[in-house]
């Protein structure tokens, strides 16, 4: 499958990826509802950090209601019907790439659609084939 | 006729708002009536929820003459306003309140499983059951359809592993629906002893198995079966992270994510609750000489390494499954042994999933009986659970009987042929099966340590003073599993506890003895004021205590009061305010608890107890009660006596024992005075009128009652 990879040195912090993501996932332009997050570095370091799911699947065994599964295309997905909104997976994500919003029961998570990659003007995020 | 519907009640399920459904489901089994009662603003203001509601309903239901098996006695099961949030670890607990057959006073338990959350989302903040049925019944609450039925259950099995599974199958529409069912049940042991407990189920989606958590202490299961309840079942489909309709969800989410991340990063470095649950305490307690061995005579044993968490981790506990007893508990301490083949008794040969084993159970059924065999632990744990018996009381009873047997106080004539020597696992299991059947010595022993002591005194003419010294009960309840001989604060924690000596009220042993955080009398009195009150709060809310201090933030040691875990206290303030929309401070959080805590103390008084004399422990709780104990730690005790200025040169062991006893008893009495004073109680341990007034629990009947005890 293809997963989203990043080159933070190319990121300008425009957040076009976040807008594109929220449009796909929740049909709104709201960076707070995006599954990819750009965070400006604090302190002496300049630039941005990019947090996005690499579909490692560690969250699957964390979930006690089997709401997280590997889809046919290899993407790790959440079944919103089964999810009880406990956010254990969010706290236990080694990539810190799952997010929450008070109006959304389930965690916000990448579905590997590539919308963010298409929206990025600098190539700071890109799709890469992974086994 | 089995399955026959005896009563039906239809209702429109109340929508939960800010943590409350606003209604209580009341069932009277004598009259077979079902009705709803409003949860008033005043109840919420004074009693908050959970244990607070339970005590209030029970207070109004019973008189000072009511006995545990009178129809007036109730069983109340209630969560609390925070109960049922899915985000914060440990938020699915039920408080169970009833008059105890062991103590004659109100008993409270705090139990996991899905019952309390599903009950609330079905429209009920509390379930209040009164009366006694003339035949076995099941109460079924359907929270989606808005229907409560009482059914004849004459043909159903009583034992939990059979019944909870059968009822989960019966009431679920499909495999996926099973997680929406929770069963409260007990077992045959609860019918034939006074140490019966309640199991509360949840369906483990990953194991495809019904699991149970226990409301263990003080005989709640005995009351349940005395009312002829086989099971109470709740069904509710549709739990989400918003089911409580919280006022400010972000406050909850922020606290929850902080804690999930802490657990993710630090649990493996701290207590490894996710790997081994509370079993990690076996080796810790053994190392610090705090593990009860052979009826609390000793605090460690060379064979204890056979029952440590390492052994359970490597051979028995299933790993890498989220062992939580309600959604969102990433601390996940509810370990289980899968595919265990039962070795004895009526279920021999069956393969079962055992909710085993917690520290308390390992210590009680094994170390305290001088048995160091992990498979015996699992076997005894399985049978205690399915028979509906409290493992802590069971382990105490067997340990006490074994000591009496080894000291020649009782013999095979009394035990019905059982060779009750320390270490005899077969005899312990036989006694367990006898308790369940209500036969032989098991029937006598199943009445609890206090009653067993009276029986032995009557039958043997043994020395009553010795028997009191070594019978580990206070107020009629058996002591939980920590040797408190070297911790004055823990002695008070056990002895003054409202329901009897259970560590959930005050567990100060490490703070006092190991970390030396409370060295002076004033410090200890303050700790015995603060912690019992703080810990009471969990059971008002539907929360578990473990995520408070069994995981701590990385920078906790740098805070002003590390033993209070200030960051987590702030989380609780945020949770309460986030759910209810109120704006309490941490001081007001304590005030909520202090009210209920004092009310419970006064309730003991109403039942004819609750004064200083009922807070007196057996001497073994305070120090070495026998020569063997003194001898085993002679260096420690000799050193202490010397440091205290006693001249022990050439003194006989008996003389030194007397010196140590006098000293420790005087320290205990002094502690009692200091604690009572700090709590706003008089010298007799009764809250003063001023205290009751300050707390806003000065109801006319309370004032009338406590006025009699003011001098």
From TrEMBL, chain A:
Keywords: 4Fe-4S, Iron, Iron-sulfur, Metal-binding
Database matches in PROSITE patterns: 4FE4S_FER_1, 4FE4S_FER_2
Xref: PANTHER family: IRON-SULFUR CLUSTER BINDING PROTEIN, OXIDOREDUCTASE
Official protein name in the record: 4Fe-4S dicluster domain-containing protein
Top-level taxonomy: Bacteria, Bacillati, Bacillota, Clostridia, Thermosediminibacterales
Domain 4Fe-4S ferredoxin-type: 2-31, 44-73, 74-98, 100-130
An example molecular function term from Gene Ontology annotations: metal ion binding
InterPro entries registered for this protein in UniProt: 4Fe4S_Fe-S-bd (IPR017896), 4Fe4S_Fe_S_CS (IPR017900), RnfB_subfamily (IPR050294)
Domain of life of the organism encoding this protein: Bacteria
TrEMBL record, chain B:
Pfam families: AFOR_C (PF01314), AFOR_N (PF02730)
One function term, GO molecular function aspect: oxidoreductase activity, acting on the aldehyde or oxo group of donors, iron-sulfur protein as acceptor
Requisite cofactors: tungstopterin; [4Fe-4S] cluster
Domain of life: Bacteria
Keywords linked to the UniProt accession: 4Fe-4S, Iron, Iron-sulfur, Metal-binding, Oxidoreductase
InterPro entries: Ald_Fedxn_OxRdtase_dom2, Ald_Fedxn_OxRdtase_dom3, Ald_Fedxn_OxRdtase_N, Ald_Fedxn_OxRdtase_N_sf, OxRdtase_Ald_Fedxn_C, Tungsten_al_ferr_oxy-like_C, W-dependent_AOR
Every Aldehyde ferredoxin oxidoreductase N-terminal domain range: 20-238
SUPFAM superfamilies hit by this protein: Aldehyde ferredoxin oxidoreductase, C-terminal domains (SSF48310), Aldehyde ferredoxin oxidoreductase, N-terminal domain (SSF56228)
Family (UniProt): Belongs to the AOR/FOR family.
PANTHER family named among the record's database cross-references: ALDEHYDE FERREDOXIN OXIDOREDUCTASE, TUNGSTEN-CONTAINING GLYCERALDEHYDE-3-PHOSPHATE:FERREDOXIN OXIDOREDUCTASE
Protein name per its UniProtKB record: Aldehyde:ferredoxin oxidoreductase
Classification of source organism: Bacteria, Bacillati, Bacillota, Clostridia, Thermosediminibacterales
């Amino acid at each position: 499958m293809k997963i989203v990879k990043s080159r933070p040195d190319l990121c300008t912090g425009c957040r076009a990826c976040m807008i594109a993501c929220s449009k796909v996932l929740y049909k709104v332009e709201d960076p707070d509802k995006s599954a990819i997050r750009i965070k400006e570095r604090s302190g002496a370091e300049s630039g941005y950090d990019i947090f996005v799911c690499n579909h490692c699947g560690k969250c699957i065994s964390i979930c006690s209601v089997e709401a997280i599964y590997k889809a046919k295309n290899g993407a790790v997905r959440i079944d919103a019907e089964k999810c009880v909104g406990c956010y254990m997976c969010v706290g236990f994500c080694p990539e810190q790439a799952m997010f929450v919003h008070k109006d959304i029961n389930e965690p916000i998570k990448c579905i590997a659609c590539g919308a963010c990659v298409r929206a990025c003007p600098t190539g700071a995020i890109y799709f890469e084939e992974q086994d | 006729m089995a399955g026959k519907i005896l009563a039906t009640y239809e209702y429109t399920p109340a929508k939960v708002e800010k943590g409350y459904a606003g209604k209580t489901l009341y069932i009277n089994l004598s009259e077979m009536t079902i009705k709803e009662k409003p949860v008033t603003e005043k109840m919420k203001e004074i009693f908050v929820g959970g244990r607070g509601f339970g005590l209030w309903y029970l207070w109004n239901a019973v008189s000072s003459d009511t006995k545990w098996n009178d129809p007036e006695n109730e069983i109340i099961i209630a969560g609390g306003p925070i109960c049922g949030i899915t985000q914060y670890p440990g938020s699915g607990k039920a408080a169970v309140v009833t008059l105890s057959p062991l103590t004659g006073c109100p008993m409270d338990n705090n139990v996991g499983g899905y019952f309390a959350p599903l009950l609330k989302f079905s429209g009920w903040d509390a379930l209040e059951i009164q009366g006694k049925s003339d035949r076995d019944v099941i109460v079924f609450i359907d929270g989606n359809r808005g229907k409560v039925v009482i059914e004849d259950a004459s043909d159903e099995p009583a034992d939990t592993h059979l019944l909870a599974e059968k009822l989960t199958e019966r009431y679920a529409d499909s495999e996926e629906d099973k997680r929406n069912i929770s069963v409260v049940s007990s077992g045959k042991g609860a019918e034939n002893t006074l140490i019966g407990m309640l199991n509360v189920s949840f369906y483990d989606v990953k194991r495809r198995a019904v699991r149970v958590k226990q409301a263990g202490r003080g005989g709640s299961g005995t009351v349940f079966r005395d009312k002829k309840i086989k099971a109470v079942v709740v069904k509710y489909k549709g739990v989400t992270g918003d089911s409580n309709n919280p006022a400010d969800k972000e406050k909850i989410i922020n606290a929850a994510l902080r804690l999930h991340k802490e657990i993710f990063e630090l649990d493996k470095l701290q207590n490894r609750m996710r790997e081994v649950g509370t079993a990690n305490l076996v080796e810790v307690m053994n190392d610090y000489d705090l593990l009860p061995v052979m009826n609390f005579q000793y605090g460690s044993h060379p064979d204890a390494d056979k029952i440590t968490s390492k052994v359970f981790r490597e051979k028995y506990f299933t790993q890498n499954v989220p062992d939580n007893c309600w959604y969102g508990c990433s601390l996940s301490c509810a370990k289980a042994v899968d595919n265990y083949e039962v070795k004895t008794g009526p279920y021999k040969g069956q393969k079962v999933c055992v909710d085993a084993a917690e520290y308390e159970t390992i210590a009680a059924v094994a170390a305290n009986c001088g048995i160091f065999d992990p498979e015996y632990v699992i076997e005894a744990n399985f049978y205690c659970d399915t028979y509906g018996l409290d493992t802590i009381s069971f382990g105490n009873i067997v340990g006490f009987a074994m000591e009496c047997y080894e000291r020649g106080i009782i013999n095979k004539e009394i035990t019905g042929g059982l060779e009750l020597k320390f270490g005899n696992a077969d005899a312990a299991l036989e006694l367990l099966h006898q308790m369940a059947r209500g036969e032989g010595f098991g029937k006598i022993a199943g009445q609890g340590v206090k009653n067993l002591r009276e029986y032995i005194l009557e039958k043997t003419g043994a020395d009553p003073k010795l028997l009191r010294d070594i019978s580990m009960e206070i107020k009629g309840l058996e002591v939980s599993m920590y040797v408190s001989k070297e911790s004055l604060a823990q002695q008070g924690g056990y002895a003054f506890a409202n329901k009897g000596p259970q560590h959930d009220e005050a567990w100060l042993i490490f703070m006092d003895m190991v970390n030396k955080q409370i060295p002076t009398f004033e410090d200890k009195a303050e700790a015995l004021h603060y912690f019992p009150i703080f810990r009471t709060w969990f059971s008002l809310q539907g929360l578990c205590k473990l995520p408070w201090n069994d995981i701590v933030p990385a920078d906790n040691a740098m805070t002003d009061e590390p033993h209070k875990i200030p960051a987590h206290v702030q989380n609780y303030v945020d949770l309460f305010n986030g759910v209810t929309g109120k704006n309490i401070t941490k001081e007001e959080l304590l005030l909520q608890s202090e009210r209920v805590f004092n009310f419970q103390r006064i309730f003991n008084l109403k039942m004819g107890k609750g004064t200083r004399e009922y807070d007196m422990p057996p001497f073994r709780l305070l120090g070495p009660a026998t020569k063997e104990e003194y001898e085993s730690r002679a260096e420690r005790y000799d050193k202490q006596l010397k440091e205290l200025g006693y001249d022990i040169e050439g003194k006989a062991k008996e003389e030194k024992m007397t010196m140590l006893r006098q000293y420790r008893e005087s320290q205990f009495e002094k502690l009692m005075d200091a604690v009572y004073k700090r709590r706003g109680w008089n010298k007799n341990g009764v809250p003063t009128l001023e205290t009751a007034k300050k707390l806003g629990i000065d109801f006319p009947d309370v004032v009338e009652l406590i006025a009699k005890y003011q001098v």
